[in-house]
Design brief:
Length: 144
């Protein structure tokens, strides 16, 4: 049986959390409950990859190596050693490395299209706006 960890919680814990949430808050329809489940699953999937990226970074620091092959046994407390080592085996494959490089290149190609948002606009768009405002104020102050 494969147990998927989200942060330091097992897959069964995530089910318990969503049921507690649904129990505490009253939702009128089955549609509401299904939407809550859908959003919950999407959020867990998103956070899971972030959690693994942070775990890889910490493992690299503890192992004092950037080589993924030397990270066996350096996983976080929330993931059993045999599961961590199995993840390392996946991350060592050519397919995974190719996906990783492709993702890095795509993110680097469009830095203004960052996924993190502060409100309704991305941080990249917000930065451009703030630079424009700063330059506008600077030009006005010079001309006065």
């Amino acid at each position: 049986m494969l147990i998927i960890h989200t942060h330091t919680h097992t897959h069964t814990h995530t089910h318990i959390y969503i049921y507690i949430y649904i129990y505490i808050y009253i939702f009128v329809s089955d549609y509401d409950r299904s939407m809550i489940r859908k959003v919950w699953n999407l959020t867990c999937m998103d956070r899971y990859s972030d959690s693994l990226a942070k775990a890889r970074k910490k493992a690299r620091e503890r192992a004092n190596s950037d080589n993924i092959e030397y990270l066996n046994g350096f996983g976080p407390r929330g993931i059993r050693i045999e599961m961590w080592d199995a993840l390392i085996d996946i991350w060592k494959t050519k397919e995974w490395k190719k996906k990783s490089i492709t993702g890095k290149n795509k993110r680097a190609a469009k830095p203004e299209a960052m996924l993190h948002i502060g409100g309704s606009i991305s941080f990249g768009q917000h930065l451009k706006k703030m630079v424009f405002i700063f330059l506008f104020i600077l030009v006005i102050s010079i001309t006065l």
